[in-house]
Amino acid sequence: xxxxxxxxxxxxxxxxxxxxxxxxxxxxxxxxxxxxxxxxxxxxxxxxxxxxxxxxxxxxxxxxxxxxxxxxxxxxxxxxxxxxxxxxxxxxxxxxxxxxxxxxxxxxxxxxxxxxxxxxxxxxxxxxxxxxxxxxxxxxxxxxxxxxxxxxxxxxxxxxxxxxxxxxxxxxxxxxxxxxxxxxxxxxxxxxxxxxxxxxxxxxxxxxxxxxxxxxxxxxxxxxxxxxxxxxxxxxxxxxxxxxxxxxxxxxxxxxxxxxxxxxxxxxxxxxxxxxxxxxxxxxxxxxxxxxxxxxxxxxxxxxxxxxxx
Length: 310
Known about the structure:
Layout: H1 7-25, H2 28-51, H3 62-78, H4 86-108, H5 113-133, E1 143-144, H6 151-174, H7 176-186, H8 188-193, H9 198-224, E2 226-227, H10 229-232, H11 235-248, H12 254-273, H13 278-292, H14 297-304
Antiparallel strand pairs: 1-2
């Protein structure tokens, strides 16, 4: 009972209760802002699963956000579905992204290091070109969903995905599977010679890391009721994943999740106060964090407060 009622667990419970109450007590802007934070944290956690835990840096992870968004949009528009299909259409987006990642994983993981990273970037660009030039995917005009107000539902979906991804990553970090991924990151050849089925584990990690962005993409397309290839495969999405993870702490569970709150709020402030210098200031901030806090600003702060980093 003492462990259950620890200060950390009580604090997490209070934070969760506050987050659940946000749609009922806050303005639409605050709800939208926190939903963006939760979505960004989930995306960063998914990128961290493959790049932080396994050591395979993906520069094209926005592809799975885009696949999930398009899969949901195509399902809704082709079957003329309404708001009642929101949850299972989002799930369809996640499954579609995981399936694409699984199919792409085997040939991709033949490569290592920068060759894998460049391949993921090329894969995202390949999907972008396909979506833009194929009428069935809406072409350059994109796809429109029913114009419904789903902000409270979108918020709750992002909250569930944020909490769910955190619990999953925490469990995975403690599991035999998570230990195997860490051995791959440290020395893949040694792990393979020790009997670890490295290819299978990498494909599983890659598939799971694509599932959550697919769900976020499916929820996002319901929120904005429109999607096109420019928004779906925007490189800024993966840049944000990488920046939040580096800011929070590469290879940690809590770092990127907590880092998303600070990063998105700072980004929002910079964008609203100095839009002409937004990207410059943000870029300099990221450089300074990496230079002076190489293991992540959140990790350094937690260690200074003598809080165990997970």
